[in-house]
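Exercise 3.2. Students should predict the tertiary structure of the chain below and write it as structure tokens, then compare their answer with the key that follows.

Predict this chain's 3D structure.
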Amino acid sequence: MESVPPPAGSQVSRVPAQRTPPEELAPPAVAPVPQRPRRRLRTVLTVIAGTLAALCLGGGVVGYLLYDRATTPDRSTPAVVVDNYLRAFLVDHNDVRGNLFVCDGSAQLGQLELLRSDLAVREQRFGARIWVSWEEFHVDRHDDYADVRVDLTFSAQIDGIRQTDRQAWKFTTRLGEDWRVCAAARAD
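Answer key:
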């Protein structure tokens, strides 16, 4: 028998086609979970690391400059160098710091060294502390040299009595890279 198509409008054409039961169908394909782009995370970490490195480097430079400025002795003017030298040598008795303010090799400071020794002997003899102070500097500058005159005041309290002595001193300074004390002598 030959198969003849059903006539138009017949009920046969409206019969649904047979379908495979769902349990026999292949499971639907699962799409892979999209991965986060690793480049974005890597870029963020690189930017953070670069910023931290720049901050550390900048902080190190600033720290060095502040340290250098704080520890470099001020030898900017003849009066300043004499003031710093007197403070280091006579008040603090710090020869190492005092040497930062004197001329290399040719400093003639013997009279000031004798003064400091004499003050130490007097402190022991009288059992009293002798304070050294100064106030006003008179600077006479000639090119790369300057004479600085200052009155040194010595004060002590001995047996309840305050005693004071004053001596005029002259310091010769020289300008190289900065000002240095080259000589000191009484200016009586």
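Discussion points: The longest strand covers residues 161-175. The first helix runs from residue 38 to 71.
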